[in-house]
């Protein structure tokens, strides 16, 4: 067992933390979380501040939602019982954590192997001293499985020691239906979901099994005489299953899974898990040479992205904090489609398909939301859980401790276009016609129908969308937000395109779909007119998109005067003044530039970026990545690199952004976007992919893999020798476009070409 607790030797693959700061303990728990898209286990301190419990992480199960019985109920993901609880003590009380010189409680995240390691020392004065090594993971190969190992060595002392392993904390959010020695079954209070867990626990002393001295439901206890040099090993395998209806029996699933795992043993479970991680890394690793901090940051990002998805469950998606914390109640936002889906589409298309099928399964909830407001089509929930019904709270406590109304659920309507954008990007990159015909086309058509209903004609001959919130959430109830309107127009046009495609390529399926959706040529004609007359806010003379009607008339606040602030700008200025100013919470027009660069002709992309970049206060963790992506595409790579490291610091540095509530998973997706779509200049085209690399000066090389319509590609950008090398590792020949010039790529014909040197940073863009 001791060998299993040794981390990967290469420092680029491990994250270490040797500190012990109680004020930052929740941040460490988040950072070192292990998850697999179904199970998540936070890395709580091996000995908590009560000095009693060895392991006490919060445990999460994807899709385990319930709605509390309150005056204003909001669905939330409930906690699962903590299957990692361990306590060690003597007859007179618990052993306590020794805080001596040097590292007091080192934690290690072995990203290559997908597991967390911890060490500590427990003492009782000068009489007893033991050293502990701990390991935990949740299996990437069999997502219902979790494993915990504990390796204890007695340094000194001969005394009776008691070790207790148990499940804790399941009674608050769940109702117990059955508890047995190795099995538990719970149900939610209101949603009708059930959770089953089973466990096999063994303790060995110097290689010999020790039977438990006491047993209770999901609790095992051993007492033995310790002596110096003694080695004690605890092994715990847990299996977990969730059911969403009364016709499913999660108990039978976990019992069978546990029987299989027990028969194969923890070493086999671990080998399968490590193999699954090796396969994931072979498809998704990003290699940066010359910038160790950037390499660690992008590995950390890819680790958490790979940990967050479950391609086997199309009924769940990824919440804003994944399975790493409780913030946002586990709710799903536009983060998934805009910041995460590109990674999965191009490295793990099976996971991308499953995430989009979640949006298909929640389409009825989106239709109901639109109908409630008198519109047609599908208006997706801004905050979504398992049903697709709107889950945004109505009120919250603001930074000034005042109660404020939350309007995003009603007004942040671009979510429907965001979902459509991800559907189209997935189909474009995978060529998955089966998905398009069975699910994707319906999403595109129903979201297109929503926008055609939502935009209204006015006397100026244009269609307007009034009373919305754009990505910049500092300004509410605004008219003709550029991001919303241009994305809506794009959405309608893609709906018309898919309608024509289905009619030509799959006429029978198109006829059935039209009949089911009550869709006819008159509808499509109306949509065409709406798209052609959509108000966009574009000033043809300046090339600037006005963020929303009246934005240019607002107070222009110089944000440089507030450099070094530790709170968001709406706290500095107050909500009312912020709403009367041009201060932006996060990328809005810049986000539009990132998603639809074709909407910005000639130099207008740079013009808009130069205008809006200095007006953004970056009050959201989503913002810096979008700015970095656009800066890299425009060739300002040093500004982009600054945004890259600022984004990495959100979860990796102990800065003003607290991460105790979970990893900012969209920021992690943003790091990958900046790297691949920004510095490598990736673009998705109808005839293949394009690359236009511009690396930071400190990056000697950049390498990554891609999946494209059944093909696997390897890309390496060598800045030292100014070369780009693209090889096709599997699949049919294709076209790849480099700086606008097409090239052929096949299995026996790799592409090696020159790259352009990036231009120097342009101070005007600041």
UniProtKB/TrEMBL annotation:
<dbReference type="InterPro" id="IPR012341">
    <property type="entry name" value="6hp_glycosidase-like_sf"/>
</dbReference>
<feature type="binding site">
    <location>
        <begin position="334"/>
        <end position="335"/>
    </location>
    <ligand>
        <name>substrate</name>
    </ligand>
</feature>
<dbReference type="Pfam" id="PF03636">
    <property type="entry name" value="Glyco_hydro_65N"/>
</dbReference>
<dbReference type="GO" id="GO:0016757">
    <property type="term" value="F:glycosyltransferase activity"/>
</dbReference>
<dbReference type="GO" id="GO:0005975">
    <property type="term" value="P:carbohydrate metabolic process"/>
</dbReference>
<keyword id="KW-0808">Transferase</keyword>
<dbReference type="Pfam" id="PF03632">
    <property type="entry name" value="Glyco_hydro_65m"/>
</dbReference>
<feature type="active site" description="Proton donor">
    <location>
        <position position="473"/>
    </location>
</feature>
<dbReference type="InterPro" id="IPR008928">
    <property type="entry name" value="6-hairpin_glycosidase_sf"/>
</dbReference>
<feature type="domain" description="Glycoside hydrolase family 65 central catalytic">
    <location>
        <begin position="299"/>
        <end position="672"/>
    </location>
</feature>
<dbReference type="GO" id="GO:0030246">
    <property type="term" value="F:carbohydrate binding"/>
</dbReference>
<comment type="similarity">
    <text>Belongs to the glycosyl hydrolase 65 family.</text>
</comment>
<dbReference type="InterPro" id="IPR005195">
    <property type="entry name" value="Glyco_hydro_65_M"/>
</dbReference>
<protein>
    <submittedName>
        <fullName>Kojibiose phosphorylase</fullName>
    </submittedName>
</protein>
<dbReference type="GO" id="GO:0004553">
    <property type="term" value="F:hydrolase activity, hydrolyzing O-glycosyl compounds"/>
</dbReference>
<feature type="binding site">
    <location>
        <begin position="585"/>
        <end position="586"/>
    </location>
    <ligand>
        <name>substrate</name>
    </ligand>
</feature>
<dbReference type="InterPro" id="IPR011013">
    <property type="entry name" value="Gal_mutarotase_sf_dom"/>
</dbReference>
<feature type="domain" description="Glycoside hydrolase family 65 C-terminal">
    <location>
        <begin position="683"/>
        <end position="745"/>
    </location>
</feature>
<dbReference type="InterPro" id="IPR017045">
    <property type="entry name" value="Malt_Pase/Glycosyl_Hdrlase"/>
</dbReference>
<feature type="domain" description="Glycoside hydrolase family 65 N-terminal">
    <location>
        <begin position="18"/>
        <end position="244"/>
    </location>
</feature>
<dbReference type="Pfam" id="PF03633">
    <property type="entry name" value="Glyco_hydro_65C"/>
</dbReference>
<keyword id="KW-0328">Glycosyltransferase</keyword>
<dbReference type="InterPro" id="IPR037018">
    <property type="entry name" value="GH65_N"/>
</dbReference>
<dbReference type="InterPro" id="IPR005196">
    <property type="entry name" value="Glyco_hydro_65_N"/>
</dbReference>
<dbReference type="InterPro" id="IPR005194">
    <property type="entry name" value="Glyco_hydro_65_C"/>
</dbReference>
